Amino acid sequence: MKTKVGLVVLGLICLFANVRAIRFNLQPNTQKCLRDEINANVLVVGEYEVSQAPGQVIDYEVRDTKQHILSKKEDISRGKFSFTSEVFDVYELCFISKVPHNVRGIVQEININIKKGVETKSYEGIAEAAKLKPLELELKKLEDLSDAIVQDFALMRKREEEMRDTNESTNNRVLFFSIFGMCCLLGLATWQVLYLRRYFIAKKLI
């Protein structure tokens, strides 16, 4: 029974670790971007294929939120790209269609496979170099995947702590601002009372 459960868990983990293929259509003279949050120092590898159309050109760019270009190529048809993230950020892969004015544009289809982190490792080469058996290779994949999951959870915990610290700091600032506002109101009310008292005394109303 334990063996069956282990095989089911192994199958599920391997299923979630598989590369996801993306397919979409790109209208003439438009661009479409794929965005994803990526941790620091993560290798990202992609493979793309673009349907051809006479007179039309498609370029791709990989950039971060500061518009730094990490990878770029013009007039693509089929190929690969890779880059390593420098910091935790939202990275986007954009495909840009360019069609001359004298050409009637048509929709082009783009197929892309993206791997990142553990998925980019060549386990076949590792198995040959270390002479690993199939089961040992699967255990190696699980070990690397587990390490990646632990790192993701550690990063999420760090971000949660940063957000909590920010919330606490904001709450303290709001509290001090509220106290300062109340003191200002009390001071203004006291000044108004004293001013009106002097005014009434001067006018001999009291």
UniProtKB/TrEMBL annotation:
Compartments in which it is found: Membrane
Topology of this chain in the membrane: Single-pass type I membrane protein
Family named by the database record: Belongs to the EMP24/GP25L family.
Keyword Lipid metabolism carried by entry: no
Record's signal peptide: 1-21
The name this protein goes by in its record: GOLD domain-containing protein
TM regions (residue ranges): 174-196
Keywords, in A-Z order: Developmental protein, Membrane, Signal, Transmembrane, Transmembrane helix
Principal localisation: membrane
GO CC aspect terms: membrane
GOLD domain span: 31-141
Keyword Transmembrane assigned: yes
Highest taxon of source: Eukaryota
